[in-house]
Amino acid sequence: MFTDFFRGGESSTVDVEGLQLMINFAAGEDAQDGSSAEIRMRCWRIITKRCGQRVPRIEVEEMGPRIDFTMGRMKEAETGVWTEAMKKPKGVEARPKKNVDTDVVGDKIGRIHLGKQDLSELQTRKMKGLKRSRDGGTEEVADYTSIISEGDADSTRDVEVKRQKIA
What we know:
Layout: H1 2-5, E1 21-27, E2 38-49, E3 57-70, H2 79-86, E4 100-102, E5 108-110, E6 146-149, H3 151-156, E7 160-163
């Protein structure tokens, strides 16, 4: 339990210059006189000193709290009381949310389901040349009388180029 509480991130390499503190837990055995085992916690300060080698010399000096933990009692509860105490309420456990995932980076990604869209109500771009004039009549649309096919290269690809007739 103590090692889980004081545990840091795992690292494959350690920078000796960056180490400053060490917390040590040692578990003793039961004594002959019937007393329970002890768990000893010690805090040490790590001092790095320069020497003629590439790796610095390390010295350890005791500091901080010095705690000896002992078990107060070893009596377990009755089975009925134990099972009642270990019960978890139903509302505590989080239900997994549907269609919500987390990617490698940790961002939430959700999937949304939409119904079928009615494309007849979809508004398309309104062209300025097709608008009606204010007096009720229709304006003349640009005159595209000169439709020609450009050269042999374009005609093989069936490309038509529209040019507006300039009046």
